[in-house]
């Protein structure tokens, strides 16, 4: 995905998002979620604009954006593969899961494939420890992963 070009239309779209939450006491998270849904990540310039509009320090917005693992602060692929690396998944083979994905996708952790299709990330608990080791691809969760299961899951995104 290419970085967002800040043009008048982008500002209008951000204004519309902000307007949706004018009655909220703490609208920041909801605004960031909408922006993230729209562009797939939180562009730095857009965050600066939100800071200006809400009259809050840009550093605070950036702090929120980087605190939550579900926010991206740079462009990502069409499919974001998040592999849990927390203790239960680690014990049950998260390292093998990551190695398999690195091999299958041809990218390292933190990278996006050249065709813009996949981004691979290691993350903390996904909340499905009962089916460790686990990963998410966009909003879908996959558990009990082994090499064969990973290949089977990836084939759905071919
Ligand atoms: S520890 Fe991996 S999903 Fe919870």
Descriptive overview:
With 158 residues, the chain is of the alpha+beta class. Helix content is 46%, strand content 11%. It is built from seven helices and four strands; from the N terminus they run ααααβααβββα. The protein has helices at residues 8-20, 28-39, 44-54, 58-67, 87-91, 94-105, 147-155, and strands at 79-84, 118-123, 135-137, 140-142. Strands 2-1-3-4 form a four-stranded mixed β-sheet, with helices on one face. α1 (8-20) packs across α3 (44-54) and α3 packs across α4 (58-67). The longest helix is centred in the N-terminal third of the chain and has 13 residues, at 8-20. It is elongated. The two termini are 18 Å apart. The mean pLDDT is 92. Bound molecules: FE2/S2 (inorganic) cluster (FES). Residues 84, 86, 88-89, 125-126, 128-129, 132, 134 line the site of FE2/S2 (inorganic) cluster. The site of FE2/S2 (inorganic) cluster has 10 residues, from α5.
Please give the structural blueprint.
Layout: H1 8-20, H2 28-39, H3 44-54, H4 58-67, E1 79-84, H5 87-91, H6 94-105, E2 118-123, E3 135-137, E4 140-142, H7 147-155
Parallel strand pairs: 1-2
Antiparallel strand pairs: 1-3, 3-4
The structure holds FE2/S2 (inorganic) cluster (FES).
The site of FE2/S2 (inorganic) cluster has 10 residues, from helix 5.
Brief summary:
The protein is α+β, with helices and mostly antiparallel strands and 158 residues long. The protein is built from seven helices and four strands.
Main sheet? 4 strands, mixed
Hetero compounds: FE2/S2 (inorganic) cluster
Distance between the termini: 18 Å
Number of strands: 4
Output mean pLDDT: 92
Strand % is 5-15%
Coarse morphology: elongated
Q: C-alpha Rg, in Å?
A: 17 Å
Given as residue ranges, the uncertain stretches (5+ residues, pLDDT < 50) are: none
Note the run of SSEs as H and E.
HHHHEHHEEEH
Please identify the oligomeric state: single chain
Number of helices in the DSSP assignment: 7
